[in-house]
Write a structure and sequence with these properties.
Radius of gyration: 23 Å
Distance between the termini: 43 Å
Oligomer: single chain
Largest sheet: none
Mean pLDDT: 89
Strand content: under 5%
Helix content: over 70%
Number of helices: 18
Number of strands: 0
Length: about 375
């Protein structure tokens, strides 16, 4: 059964199903034991489990945006099968039921995935994001309401950038690139330049990781120019900081520092609700980002900037702390402070192992060598 592809525990899925049923007036019910049987396809005595009750089937279809036959099929079994008239009508009907309340629920689920991702890492959260991409993609593909379809496109762009960043952190640059390509296509359908610019800008980090730093600089320069028209200050600040990182990676010290000054000038004084792409940027995260660039270009004040950022960082941002400690190790070692550098490198190594960050593990190995 394709529910196997979800990374949630069965108990978490059942709780989510109960909440969905209450919110949208569905009569279907689901227990952990029933879910186990649906996933295995067998009863305890080994006989086939059969189809769930109609009310339960409808609940699952509405939650996951797929016909019950596809959900009960083994992973990949429905791939390549011609969609029947009835199946098409089912998919169109499911997409037609997407309204403002459903969109809020989907966005809330994305928020939960982001929290899991930043604290526990991509190794825990990635499969759930990919499953949600398939669900939202199916709804968008069969949505006939332009306003709803645009919002599903924006949501799909956000999911795609999260999956792309996760794959980059997991060390799979090719898969990361493709997630960003898909995210850009979805963003174009959102009819909002902010989502389009954000997807393109995030893809620049893949270029940096594979050494295409001059291409990353050009991509982010173009993104900044495009964002001058019709995007908010927070996104423009984020784009300036991203441009600053690319410039530092490309060895353009003065231009990098100017970009970070531009980011600081654009950063809003107070956090507010953002109706646009999700970015994490406040004075602490901007200082962390600037410190990364300073460490990369060998500036002596990198240690002070990074240490201040570390002392103020929200402890739930585990991946951010990991990267920050690698930067601190880099900065300390550049100053000849080998013991301080080693302490931060080893702490970063432990955190990277916990969250499955191949990207940061590679940086640590290049910096201080493999673990003893």
């Amino acid at each position: 059964m394709r529910l196997r592809e979800r990374s949630q525990t069965l108990a978490e899925f059942v709780v989510e199903a109960e909440r969905f049923a209450r919110t949208f007036g569905e009569a279907g019910t689901l227990s952990v034991r029933h879910l186990q049987r649906l996933i295995s396809g067998r009863k305890p005595n080994g006989s086939p489990v059969g189809r769930p009750r109609p009310a339960t089937a409808r609940l699952l279809e509405r939650m996951l945006g797929l016909p019950i036959d596809d959900l009960l099929a083994s992973p990949g079994a429905a791939r390549g099968r011609v969609e029947s008239d009835d199946e098409l009508r089912q998919r169109l009907s499911a997409a037609r039921r997407v309204n403002g309340d459903v969109l809020v629920l989907l966005r809330d689920q994305l928020t939960s995935m982001r929290r899991l991702d930043r604290q526990l890492g991509a190794a825990t959260a990635h499969e759930e994001v990919v499953t949600k991409i398939r669900q939202v993609s199916g709804l968008r593909s069969h949505s006939l309401a332009p306003g709803i379809r645009n919002q599903l496109g924006a949501l799909l762009a956000e999911l795609g950038t999260l999956a792309g960043w996760q794959k980059l952190d997991m060390g799979s640059v090719g898969e990361s690139w493709q997630f960003y390509e898909d995210a850009k296509a979805a963003a174009r359908e959102s009819d909002d330049v902010a989502f389009q610019v954000h997807c393109s800008a995030e893809q620049a980090f893949v270029l940096i990781d594979v050494g295409e730093t001059s291409s990353a600089v050009e991509l982010l320069r173009a993104a900044e120019r495009t964002a001058e028209r019709g995007t908010g200050r927070l996104l423009r600040s984020w784009l300036a900081a991203a441009h600053g990182e690319a410039l530092a990676a490309d060895g353009q010290r003065s231009a990098s520092l100017r970009a970070f000054d531009r980011a600081a000038a654009l950063l809003p004084a107070e956090a507010s609700a953002v109706d646009g792409p999700y970015v994490v940027l406040d004075p602490v995260h901007l200082a962390r980002w600037r410190g990364h660039a300073l460490a990369r270009i060998g500036e002596s004040d990198a240690v002070e900037v990074l240490s201040t950022a570390l002392s103020s960082l929200d402890p739930t941002f585990t991946r951010a702390e990991t990267a920050l400690r690698v930067d601190l190790a880099t900065a300390f070692l550049a100053l000849g402070e080998r013991e301080e550098g080693r302490v931060h490198a080893e702490r970063a190594r432990a955190l990277a192992a916990e969250i499955g960050s191949a990207r940061q593990q590679r940086r640590i190995t290049l910096l201080v060598g493999p673990a003893n």
